[in-house]
Amino acid sequence: MKELLKKFEDKTPEIVFNWKDAETEAEGWTVINSLRGGAAGGGTRMRKGLDMNEVLSLAKTMEVKFSVSGPAIGGAKSGINFDPNDPRKKGVLQRWYKAVSPLLKSYYGTGGDLNVDEIHEVIPFTEECGVWHPQEGVFNGHFKPTEADKINRIGQLRQGVIKVIENPKFSPDVLRKYTIADMITGYGVAEAVRHYYHIYGGDVKGKKAIVQGFGNVGSAAAFYLAEMGVKIIGIIDRDGGIINEEGYTFEEIKSLFLNKDGNKLVAQNMIPFEEINQRIWTLGADIFTPCAASRLVTKNQIDNLINNGLEVISCGANVPFADKEIFFGSIMEETDSKVSLIPDFISNCGMARVFAYFMEKKVQMTDEAIFSDISEIIKTALEKAHNLNADKKNISATAFEIALKQLV
Fold it and tell me: Sorting pLDDT into bands at 50, 70 and 90, what band is 114?
């Protein structure tokens, strides 16, 4: 696995597109690791301090993710070094998509990512540039459909991603009109935990969990975990967090979800960040879902979790560990050798899979069909890892080996 990984990491990306905004200090990159299958896909993120290396590592991560979620295409990513809270953000994104639109028409598909919203930014801004859909390049480069077929499938994709969830089993509140895009990644993170216990042994009900990050992914993961009977005992977010060692009820988690301020946790008796960051890692959780930004989780935090009975980690964030390596850094490797670590490219493949699902020929557009498709994809990936290595340790190393054999 290590040799395959080194080969994959060291391979120079096929395309690096660099853009400097004429009107602000913003700088952006699209990195296309490969045009495997004639196309590449990966979302657009924005944050201050982002650099090309971050985009490159995420492009490689996407390629591994597509080996699980489909379609069989190359990995890519776009990143813009700019403060997302700057009032000039809209103009920066509009100019960025105009610059990158020839790629989006030909062989690159994108979507929302950190600080860039799929529905309110990516779709309308790419449409302004004459791109039918942010995934149009994947259709043209990989699927090569007839014009009629392309129109049908893009229609399916457009409708599907912004589809309002009607089934109360999948939505915290059907009246608030949460969409598939709002909930699907967190759903996958929770389903990965459920399938893990089913495949590797144990009952998920009554297990204790800590959730890191309460944005789209973390809050949805908490909602679905609580729904399946997991006791959420702690949530840590950017500005602080909450603890209840007995575990919050499903109704309490649901109201925390509904009371979010955008991507921020809002709760009474919020514990300041410094204090909760000292306390939360030793609470005695069975399950940990890192769903905040990349490269935040330290060795010390993991050691504390493991020493207090941790059983499984389901990654909501891409590359959650504070390693400098693109993939399998020392913290991740050590964690994988001590507990069950479900890698990000399996547990958070929800959105990538949604795109792949809607790109197929006529599919069912019901909530049940869409959510159960994601669940099955994650279950199959975990079963493949279990078939190769039934041990609860080294799940990530095994899953990487399966993925890289398809890519190298």
Answer: confident
Whether 159 contacts 365, CB under 8 Å: yes
| Segments of 229-272 assigned E as strands | 231-237, 240-248, 271-272
Helix intervals (H) in 316-394 = 330-338, 344-347, 350-359, 367-388
Give residues with Cβ within 8 angstroms of 260, minimum separation 6: 214, 219, 266
SS3 state at 274: helix
Q: What's the one-letter identity of residue 225?
A: L
Q: If pLDDT is split at 50, 70 and 90, which confidence band does 118 have?
A: confident
Task: Check residue 113 and report its DSSP letter.
Answer: B
Question: Phi/psi at 31 (nearest 5 deg)?
Answer: -110, 120
- What values do phi and psi take at 80, rounded to 5? -120, 125
Give the whole-angstrom CA distance, residue 133 versus residue 242. Answer: 40
Of 93, 126, 108, nearest to 21 by C-alpha is: 93
Question: H/E/C letters for each residue in 158-215?
Answer: HHHHCCECCCCCCCCCHHHCCEHHHHHHHHHHHHHHHHHHHHHCCCCCCCEEEEECCC
Q: Tens digit of pLDDT for each residue in 21-48?
A: 999 999 999 999 999 999 999 999 999 9
